[in-house]
Amino acid sequence: YAAVSANPYEPRYFRVLAQALFGKMNDVVAGINIRPEAERRAKPEESALLQGLTVRTINAVQRAGALDPENVSVAVDAAEAYRNLVPLVQGADDLAIQSYERARDLEPINPFIKTQLGQLYLIKSNMFNQGLDVDTEYADKARAVLEKTLELNPNYANARYFYALIQDYNGLREEALQNFLILRQTNSDNQLIAQIIANLEQGRPALGIPPRPATPPQSPQAVE
Questions:
Q1: Which residues, including other chains, have CB under 8 Å from residue 206's CB and lie 6 or more apart?
Q2: pLDDT tens per residue, range 29-53
Q3: In angstroms, rounded to a whole number, what is the distance separating the alpha carbons of residues 164 and 170?
Q4: Alpha helices in the chain (DSSP H)
Q5: What is the reported pLDDT for 122?
Q6: Exposed (0-12), middle (13-18) or buried (19+): which is 71, by Cβ within 10 Å?
Q7: Which of 79, 82, 84 is nearest to 105 (CA)?
Q8: Average pLDDT over residues 67-78
Q9: CA nearest 95: which of 57, 127, 128, 132?
Q10: What whole-number distance in Å separates Cα of residue 73 and Cα of residue 52?
């Protein structure tokens, strides 16, 4: 707070402030979650505190972006901040996507940015939520951005993982299996990869029989 007050034109200070504010929000939520289940809801003063922290976090993120709009790190920080706010703020997922799209435009050959964007597209597509219709526009965006990532860097494991899940969903089970076999070469001890391969070899969906999770499981590792 002191640094921002002393120099309100330094984007780095606002980035750090946003991280600190989000950390405080996490502390409040953690305090709620450790209570007995019957008491596991925010008290009025906790709700007010979380709302205030949320507004200040968003303001700090937006201020950093306004001060340094061409800085890819600022755009990535904003995307991650919005993504962390998804459980608390309606529309935060859309803001996260917009920030990652901005980061992608600033640094189009960065596989991490493209893969993070692909994950967000997948979540928005509802592909992994059995109770909702799939948004084909977001599903197509996810496939395209992950495919482009693998063209840029075939060794980027996270992109291959999510791309293979899309192939499986689209009925390309053999192609998906080949991609998971490639992943196993650098993730030989990963139990999730082993189970996915076993499922595909036995003719089952990669993630097993529905119901599937609402969001895809995290990929094994990132190969820079």
A1: 164, 165, 168, 176, 180, 196, 199, 200
A2: 899 889 998 888 888 998 999 889 9
A3: 10
A4: 2-6, 11-33, 44-67, 72-84, 92-106, 111-125, 136-152, 157-169, 173-186, 191-201
A5: 93
A6: middle
A7: 79
A8: 90
A9: 57
A10: 25
DSSP 175-195: HHHHHHHHHHHH-TT-HHHHH
Average pLDDT, rounded, for the chain? 87
| CB-CB contact of 113 with 103 (8 Å) | yes
Structure-block tokens of residue 60? 């700090």
165-173: long-range contacts at Cβ-Cβ below 8 A with a sequence spacing of 24 or more? 165/122, 165/206, 165/207, 165/216, 166/122, 166/127, 166/139, 166/142, 168/200, 168/205, 168/206, 168/207, 169/127, 169/205, 173/200, 173/203
110-130 confidence digits (pLDDT tens):
999 999 999 999 999 998 887
- Cβ neighbours, 10 Å, residue 72: 16
